[in-house]
Structure formats: structure tokens, C-alpha cells
Prior knowledge:
By secondary structure, the protein is mainly alpha-helical. The protein is 78% helix and 0% strand. It contains 5 helices and no strands.
Amino acid sequence: AEQALTLMANSAAFTLAGVIHYDLKRLGEAESRLERARSLDATNCQAVWYLGLIRSDRAEWPQGAATFAAALSC
């Protein structure tokens, strides 16, 4: 996924990289990739949902709740 970002830097590619980093428990890298995906496409619900998961994993409850709410209304 990281190599794919060198070929195409769009919301889908950043989302894929973020999800892979999340699955590998690399939360910092996942968050930065998913934030970039969201900045490129505000309607990318999958990126927003995974950002909610990251904030929940970090026990950032108010931010996580707000992020999940944004994902559900996406």
C-alpha cells in the first residue's frame, strides 16, 4: 500500500494504506494516512470510521464518539 502511494496518491490509496497500518497496530501511521484520505475526500466514510477505531483504541472517548458520529452520518 505504501508503494502504491508513490504511483497514485488519491483517497482510496491513502485509505488502503491506513487500514493496513491499522491492522498491523501502527496507529500513528494509520492515523496520518486516514487523515490524508479524509482531506482528499470528505465523503470517504471508511477512512472516518477507521479514525474512530483508532481514537477508541487510544481511549480517546470524546474524540472517538464524535468521529463515529461523523462516520454514521456520512
